[in-house]
Design a protein that fits this description.
- With about 350 residues, the chain is of the alpha/beta class.
- The chain folds into two domains: about 230 residues, 3-Layer(aba) Sandwich (Aspartate Aminotransferase, domain 2), CATH 3.40.640.10; about 100 residues, Alpha-Beta Complex (Aspartate Aminotransferase, domain 1).
- It is about 35% helix and about 15% strand.
- It is built from nine helices and 15 strands.
- A seven-stranded mixed beta sheet has the order 2-12-11-10-7-3-4, sandwiched between helices.
- Helix 1 crosses helix 6 and helix 7 runs parallel beside helix 9.
- The longest helix has 23 residues.
- Belongs to the class-V pyridoxal-phosphate-dependent aminotransferase family. SerC subfamily.
- Its cofactor is pyridoxal 5'-phosphate.
- Catalyzes the reversible conversion of 3-phosphohydroxypyruvate to phosphoserine and of 3-hydroxy-2-oxo-4-phosphonooxybutanoate to phosphohydroxythreonine.
- It comes from Pasteurella testudinis DSM 23072.
Length: about 350
């Protein structure tokens, strides 16, 4: 295979056009004869880039005016602590909807800072996992916020409907599906996402926070995670990861230049449907997620045994199909097909899967 396709769950592949532009500008950004990594984040050039990036993501997601776009460090895991520190009252509590590993990890961290109720919203039937409950309108009012993860990268479970929490504050960890399709931001109090799957490299996290939720942080909240301090200092209370921020802006522009999120959703659905269709008819591989909750971003599958799975991953790697090994918790294989993955990558994977199945029946 002449072309390599990277199916890593994160850090994930980035658009080739973005990488090519970054390469071209690496030594001479905006005719400054220096790299974007070497200029002051307080200088006019980088300040303009920062403002441009915020306008780009506002346009992509149609973010209402009463929401702030903030850039922070510490990844999504850092926000597992920052969210309760900013949104929980001193004697408050929150509800966490458990759909898999990452939502459970967020709840575990939040328990360090307040009372957390957790409810599992998935169920397994005949070896297939699906989401069974999304209406919490009768109980949500007692909580300062309700947290969920709409896409679980490890298990390949995606929640397409927004949970019903009445007038309660809904917080979503969209690290692995942000910018993959249009969403109604007004249904959320806060959205946060690590960049390393659909937005850029690791090292930066984007927060979209409704204005009325800012300014309530506990006094013990670290300043770099205090949403009011981040807002008042244009996300530059400390030196931000400037190169990661720059790359995110390039990705945002790439998305705008390629039709925005509606076009991206069409591409992503076409890729996922093609791969799932093959899995369902193959008779050799199987996916264990209910059809209604199959992720568009992370397609998990397995063969009949672990030895065969290991053989598959090794052979695929030799053929230029990288990072297909499933997470250690669930095993099997996982093809992460984020925005930057072209349809040709999915087609190459299917062709390899067909050949492997024929040779190992």
């Amino acid at each position: 295979m002449s072309q390599v396709f990277n199916f890593s769950a994160g850090p994930a592949m980035m658009p080739q056009a973005v990488l090519a532009q970054a390469q071209q500008e690496l030594l001479n950004w905006e005719a400054l004869q220096t790299s974007v990594m070497e200029v002051s984040h307080r200088g006019k050039n980088f300040m303009a880039l920062a403002e441009r990036s915020i306008q780009q993501i506002r346009e992509l997601l149609a973010i209402p005016d009463n929401y702030q776009v903030l850039f922070a460090q510490g990844g999504a895991r850092g926000q597992f602590a920052a969210i309760p520190l900013n949104l929980l009252g001193e004697n408050g509590k929150a509800l966490y909807l458990n759909s898999g590993y990452w939502s459970a990890a967020a709840a575990k961290e939040a328990r360090l800072f307040g009372k957390i109720d957790e409810v599992t919203i998935t169920a397994e039937k005949d070896g297939v996992v699906g989401v069974e409950k999304l209406d919490f309108s009768e109980i949500a009012a007692q909580y300062d916020y309700v947290h969920y993860c709409p896409n679980e990268t490890i298990s390949g479970v995606e929640i397409f409907d927004v949970p019903n929490v009445g007038d309660a504050v809904l917080v979503a960890d969209m690290s692995s599906n942000i910018l993959s399709r249009p969403i109604d931001v007004s249904k959320f109090g806060m959205i946060y996402a690590g960049a390393q799957k659909n937005m850029g490299p690791s090292g930066i996290v984007i927060l979209i926070v409704r204005d009325d939720l800012i300014g309530k942080a506990r006094s013990a909240t670290p300043s770099i995670w205090n949403y009011q301090i981040l807002r008042d200092n244009d996300s530059m209370f400390n030196t931000p990861p400037t190169f990661a921020w720059y790359l995110c802006s390039l990705v945002f522009q790439w998305l705008l230049d390629n039709g925005g999120l509606s076009a991206m959703e069409s591409r992503n659905r076409a890729k996922a449907e093609k791969l799932y269709a093959y899995l369902d008819q193959s008779g050799f591989y199987r996916n264990t997620v209910a059809v209604a909750n199959r992720s568009l971003m992370n397609v998990t599958f397995t063969t009949e045994n672990d030895d065969l799975n290991a053989k598959f991953v090794a052979a695929a790697t030799k053929c230029g199909l990288q990072a297909l090994k499933g997470h250690r918790i669930v095993g099997g294989m996982r093809a992460s097909i984020y925005n930057a993955m072209p349809i040709e990558g999915v087609e190459a994977l299917i062709a390899f899967m067909q050949q492997f199945a024929q040779e190992n029946q």
